[in-house]
Amino acid sequence: MKTEQEILQNTSESTRKKKMDLGYDSQGIKKTMRYYHYLGDGAATVTLNSINGLVGILTYFYTDKVGIAAATVGTLMLVTRILDAVADLLMGKIVDATKSKYGKARPWMLWMAIPALVSIILLFTVPAEASSTTKTIYALITLVIATAIVYAAVAIPYGSLMAMRTKSSEERGKMGITRSIYGYIMGMVIAIGLIPITNMLGGDQSAWIKVAVVIGIISCLSLLVTFASSKEETGEVIKGEVEDNVPFLESIKLLFKNKYWVMMLFAQLFINMTYILSGSTGVYYTKYILGNENLVGIMGAVGLIPVIIGFAAVGPMIKKFGLAKTARIGIALGIFATLIRCFMPYSFSAALILGGIATFATIPMMAVGGVLVNNTVEYGEWKFGKRLVGMVNSANSFGVRVGSGLAGALIGWILAFGNYDGTLETQPDSAIFSILIVTVYLPLILFILTYLFLRKYDLDGKYPQIIKELEARRNK
């Protein structure tokens, strides 16, 4: 017979479990996260978007501040991104093999905090007085450190953490929204503030280094916040779930048999090219089409309006339309806005209004893209009997990186084809047209391609049943 103390202890334990129990989402999947978990989880996106945003603006920094030729920069960006993509694949296997008291993915947030700080600063310490070859080699090495090593060692574990944290598509959706808000804020700080702030500090290379130090410190602290506030659910919530030790080449074959993963591979590739173009080419448009490079800050500030509206709208849109349809609606709107802008490419008003609509159009995909990718983990496990969390995120990141590399390379190559010269105050007509290609015409093509690969993604409706069947298999 139980003593009074044991009864009180059992009652207390039962009460504690009830308080911790968050219930189930609308699809009947157990929830695991409170509001502060989302806030902490999203912080690491600041680091990723800091590196992405700074790398995006490096084309301008290299051509106009340290004197590297545009064509060389384009090739440099493509080579680096290919190395990045290979590094992502390797990082996927490393994450799957990681063993620590903190889990597989979470510890990388801690381990990469200081390297992130250092790598961001190194990007802008190119020896400006050195030979062209020396500058190019230095730029290549520091880019590889920042993107192929540090970025990969944060992005792949961070992406995997979503699948390891919760199975709830609803909670993953909220994680995606929170992450994209953090990331977009940091991206916009760089897009809006970097040129005006560095100009205010003198506009020379030392000004860029000073700003990089501040951004590096913020990025370091952001990773520590995510590490401190996150966890990997390896107990009751994801009972019986283990990472399958699948050989590398077999993993790749299984991924390409996963039709939804393939759809997201290409959709992420093309939309990421759109992000890079948007973040990297505005300064060329304002400087040479509008005649004032500081207008990039004004355009970015005005662009915050559709961003705020977009993040306010994306949650209700997901509830009403689901994840994939929300993304498709956004992309369709982007096609509409950029198509109209093609008929008035020199208009500042069109750049503000239609560019704002195009910005709004990217928010849904930004918010749900990672969720749509991670939901393919369960589909692959259900379809082929193998669970590939790290490889799903790393191989998908392969497509994102190649997209970023292609976008960066295209910027440099198209500018070079148009005889762009960063030392000239006035560019030839061919260079002006090349700027219009990368800022107006090419984004339309990328929006269309993104939509084409998203149009048949219908996993949302199948996902709850897939989860139920997977749980039934594990309970046998």
Tell me what the structure shows.
The protein is mostly helical. It has one domain (34-474): Up-down Bundle (Growth Hormone, Chain: A), CATH 1.20.1250.20. 79% of the residues lie in helices and 0% in strands. The chain contains 18 helices and no strands. Helix 4 runs parallel beside helix 7 and helix 15 (348-384) packs antiparallel against helix 16. The longest helix has 37 residues, at 348-384. The two termini are 35 Å apart. The relative contact order is 0.15. Mean pLDDT is 85; it is low at 14-19 and 234-242.
Structural class: mainly alpha
Strand content: under 5%
Number of strands: 0
Tell me the domain tally: 1
Q: Which CATH first-tier class would you pick?
A: Mainly Alpha
Which segments are poorly predicted (pLDDT under 50) over 5 or more consecutive residues? Answer: 14-19, 234-242
End-to-end Cα distance: 35 Å
CATH architecture: Up-down Bundle
Sheet having the most strands: none
| Average pLDDT level | 85
CA-based gyration radius = 23 Å
Number of alpha- plus pi-helical segments: 18
Oligomeric state, counting identical vs distinct chains? single chain
Report the order of strands and helices: HHHHHHHHHHHHHHHHHH
Say which CATH homologous superfamily is assigned.
MFS general substrate transporter like domains
Shape: globular
CATH topology: Growth Hormone, Chain: A
Helix content: over 70%
